Amino acid sequence: MKKVVLIAGTEHTRETLHEQLESYIGGIAQVESYAIDKGIKDKIKADIVIISTSLIYNEAILFIEGISKVIVARRVLNYKIIENLLFIPEGEKVLFVNDCKETTQECIDWLKKLGLNHVEYIPYYPGCELKEKINYAITPGEIDIVPKDIANIIDIGPRLIDIVTIAEILKELNVYDEKWEDATIMYLDKIVSLAKKFADISKEKTRAFNHIKVVMDGMKEAVLAFDNKGKIIVSNENLKFIVGAKGNIVGKSIREIFAGNNIIEFLLSCDKEASNLFEIRGEKYIITKFILDKDNISIATLKSQKDLEELEKQMLKDLYRKGYYAKYSFEDIIGNSIEINYIKDIGRKIAKNDLTVLIEGESGTGKELFASAIHNESMRKNKPFVAVNFSSLPENLAESELFGYEEGAFTGALKGGKKGLFEQADGGTIFLDEIGDASLKLQTKLLRVLQEKEIMRIGGNKIIPIDVRVIAATNKNLRELVEKGEFREDLYYRLKVMYIKLPPLRQRKEDIKVLLDYFISKKDKGLKIKDEVVNILINYNWPGNIRELKNLVEYMMAVCNGSEIDKMDLPLDMLHYDNMLRQDLKLILDIIEDLRKRGENASRRKIERICREKGINLTEQMIRTRLKELEKMGYVKSQKGRVGTMLL
Known about the structure:
The chain is α/β, with parallel strands linked by helices. Helix content is 41%, strand content 18%.
């Protein structure tokens, strides 16, 4: 959890602003505060330091140690006190009392800017003399400085941090997108409640709405508040600009300013919270509406789709910074074979829906590459892609990593708790690699996540809904694990909604030359590889698949002295591989490969017939013996019935 520190000039200001910050960011950041008039003993270390005013900047900056984001707060008058100021008689002389000349004049300027200029303000601060009888005094918490003979004292309290500064803090905490609506609701709830209260006081109505208008006009979003009949209570200049309205629209019906019936139906619907995309005067806007139950007032914010696209770009930058993005697309999957093109075609089709995917394949066949490509071709491509490998995740840490934990859940738990990978992947894709290594206990929890679309952190008591697509992968045969009782059958079928079986490299040998050229060209476009080397590699069995081929290329390029890789640049075990098999075994492998290319099954009878045609005397029994040798060596797999023998 990030640390936010507030430095204020006085203790009174510190208390007020600390309380305000807690209300906005208390659940997502650790908030501390200091007052200069109370003294600051130690250097301050924090992710974000907020200085309450530019007047104390030079003094406050001396207490900051290390690299911190420093924000000088913009401040606005506390709107809760406007009602008291409105009842001061018009034309009355009013003493404005503060602790120094600069802040005194700044506050007077703010009052005038808010439309509260029906009185004559007289600045008063230490060193000033009161030369005439004054009945009213206004002070932001500095009551001790107010002259004793003034009868009516209005304490407006310290000025609050404005909504623009709150937005800047949320952005620095990387929670702007998820917390901005909440912050806006908190801010506008108070403003709109104030507006409704003053709407019944005709004498002060104009002044109250002038204040609200200044506040809302300072917001980037277009804002509109209206009652359950569609009568507009308050709006800002951005809204008027979007709809092309001129003059005052308060008191009008939303039907008068929005041309489309679909927008009006949306705004007047009973949904407490809703968002939708609409076109207004040729531009597209996201309209978000929420209802304040206690006042039966609806508030709508309008955001330009262009602005949202910019925000989306910023979110993508944040995902890249965290590493939560998919690196590969289907264009990065190299090969021209029928097998790989078929699988890529299936993958693209699977990407278009939002169902769970299970990818099976030997180590090194590119399971994560396919998972990345599916994500990047899906509707979730601009959202997080979070990968977790169960084979490298200790069982005692797996649950907390996946589902997160609350503060104090166990010894060593971080203060404030921690989001799990499922929460961090919300809206996007989580890739569960080597799912076959997950314990049965963890499998049970994963099953619940897939069924209920919700998680609960360790030590927590709150259900957290999640919107995540799951792609799982394994190099094991999950069906066999299910039969052995090592993998839950219900989880297996939950995962295997969409299914991809990646072919090993030895089943797509026509891709070997393409892959060789690709890996070599990435490092040295001028380097060539001799045909005899390519032939040796094509005849190799590739137990490590594409990963082994890539590593081999790295080796050959490292030891090669010339501009062409030759036979002597191969590792010794690879160099002698071509001579490791007896000629009779090589012959049987070649026959099986030829039959596979023709789409025929490789039965012992067919192999025996082809051997006889080649003038080689091998009986079915002799072929059976040799096939068993090849199966032990990992080259083939014998199948029952008509399927015959298959190459691995």
